[in-house]
Structure formats: C-alpha cells, structure tokens
Amino acid sequence: MTRLLSLCLLLLSASVARASAPEPSLDVRGEDGEPIPTRVLEPEGGAKNPPVAVLLHGLTRRKEDWLSEEGPTHGGVLKDELLRAGYRVYLLDARRHGERATPDARPGTLARLAHKGEPGRYIAMISDTVRDAHSLLNAVLAKNKPPRVLVVGYSMGAQVGLLLAAREPRVTQLVTMVPPHIDPSMEEVAPSRYMKSIQQDWLLLTANQDDFAPVADSRALFEAAPSRSKTHKTFESGHALPREYLDEVRRWLLDASRRAPSQSGNVQR
After folding, report:
1. Residue 237 CA from chain centroid, whole number
2. What is 2-263's CATH number?
3. Does the pLDDT of residue 206 top 50, yes or no?
4. How far is the CA of 118 from the CAs of 110, 111, 121, 122, 229, in angstroms?
5. C-alpha distances in angstroms, 117 versus 4, 11, 18, 94, 102?
6. In degrees rounded to 5, what are phi and psi of residue 200?
7. Which of 28, 119, 158, 227 could form an SS bridge with 139, CB 3.0 to 4.6 Å?
8. In 192-240, which ranges are E strands?
9. Residue 236: which of 246, 226, 244, 228 has the closest Cα?
C-alpha cells in the first residue's frame, strides 16, 4: 500500500500532458451506462479493417498523455508510431480521470484511503475502468474482426491492461510498462491473481530501480503468464522509464506483426 501512495504522489507532481487538436470521439458507454470519453485516431494508409490499439494511461493522468511527447509516458511518440504502422488507435479516460474527474473522489485521495486500509473506492475505480475498456472493445469489434488487437498500458494503465487481457481472449497483443505492485489482498484488481490467463503475445517493460514495482515482483508476473510469446526488458531507471523504452516497443511491434501464432516462442531477456 505504501508503494501505491508514493506512486500517486509521484504522478501528481508530474506535468500535465499538452493536448493536441481534438480528434474524433466515439459514443460508447460502460456496463452501468456511464459514457466513456474516447478519442479515435485514424491510421495512415486508409485500410478498411486495420489492426486496433487501445492505450491506457497512468494514475492521476488522462488520455491526452498519448498525444504529448512529454514525460513520463512520451505517449505521443508511441501513438504516432502506431498510426504509421497502420493501427487505428483508441484513447479513453479511466474512471475519476480526465473528463471523468470527480472533485469529491480524486484518484490521489482514493489511493491514500487504500493506504489507510479503506481500499473499496480505489478497487471500484480500477474495476470499473477494466469494464469500461472491455465495453470499448466490444463496441470496436462488434462489426469487424481486425487482424490484431493491441492493448498498451503505462503504470496504472499496465495494471488495467493485464486485467483486461486476462478476461478478453480477443486481445492478441499486450504491451505493459512498469505495472505497479498491487497487494494480492486487493484481489479484484491485483494482476498477480490473474496471470495464468495471460495468453497474448506480451511485452513487459520494467525498471531495476522502481520502488513501485520491485524486480522480484515484476519477474514473478512474467513467469506466471503461460503466453507462448513473451519478452521482458528491464531498464536502468526508476518508475519513469527513459525515452529509449519506445525503441524497444517499436522493435517488438515490428517483430510481432511478422510472427504468425504458430511461430511464437517463449523469449526472455
């Protein structure tokens, strides 16, 4: 829990990402009827049925992180890379974040309450966000079956991405950057409880000086997944990965797009 609180304070102190010009939005609602603020970015090339990518932001952040080249995510660089590679990209705000911010229940407040032994509303925030991402996928995949379905998440977004991939076999590719350690006692939102369901082609990026995701915990997550094709890269950094992490993602995406499922093997670094 201490790590969760510290992570919240770290990300609260980070600068808010600069948003670029508004992109088309998607009218989609969660299981409880809540509207899910979503932006849709069309790929280069104009393919009729392109691969799709859902990008998930970190704690106290917002979907516009993926429109900015600033840290800690440098998400605009990755977003542009995906568009050039032909992905249609979807950006959504987590519950209590961005357009869904609630002054009476800010993400930092919920993390502090969890630290004090009152995790209920934090758990609800994460669980509802996972369900929202699942509702978005249902809407996106209702009419077409794209060649690839990629989920990308940074920090809290990586936590959400793992939970989503564990329940959604239509996700074919998964990229998670520095998923924070979540105490297994928070069962509904602790990825460690669900790793046996991770079957996707998976890239895990972590850091060896990350107080929020200790090396041993990250390694345990990786080893628990039965994915036939998985790669784990560790950087010499803290929770905010160096910008060079994007090069690793770029290489992995290129390799993954070339690799047929029958050719997948277990890769560890």
Report:
1. 19
2. 3.40.50.1820
3. yes
4. 8, 9, 8, 8, 38
5. 12, 21, 35, 23, 21
6. -70, 165
7. 28
8. 201-207, 230-235
9. 244
Q: How many CB atoms lie within 10 A of CB 85?
A: 19
Query: Where does 85-189 have alpha helices with state H?
Result: 107-115, 120-140, 156-167
Structure tokens at 21: 């010009």
Q: How far apart are CA 7 and CA 161, in angstroms?
A: 18
In sequence order, the 6+-apart residues with CB closer than 8 A to the CB of 141 are 52, 149, 170
CA-wise closest residue to 182 among 191, 172, 170 = 191
pLDDT, one tens digit per residue, over 63-109 is: 999 999 999 999 999 999 999 999 999 999 999 988 998 888 888 78
Whether the CB-CB separation of 61 and 73 falls below 8 Å is answered with yes
Domain boundaries, the chain: 2-263
Residue bearing tokens 């969890």: 114
In this structure, of 5-14, 203-212, 218-227, the range with the lowest mean pLDDT score is: 5-14
pTM: 0.88
Q: How many CB atoms lie within 10 A of CB 109?
A: 16
Q: What is the mean pLDDT of residues 163-181?
A: 97
* 154 strand-pairing partners: 177
Do the beta carbons of residue 170 and residue 141 sit within 8 Å? yes
Q: Which of 87, 67, 86 is nearest to 77 (CA)?
A: 67
Q: Show the tokens assigned to 47.
A: 């393919």
Q: How far apart are CA 164 and CA 244, in angstroms?
A: 26
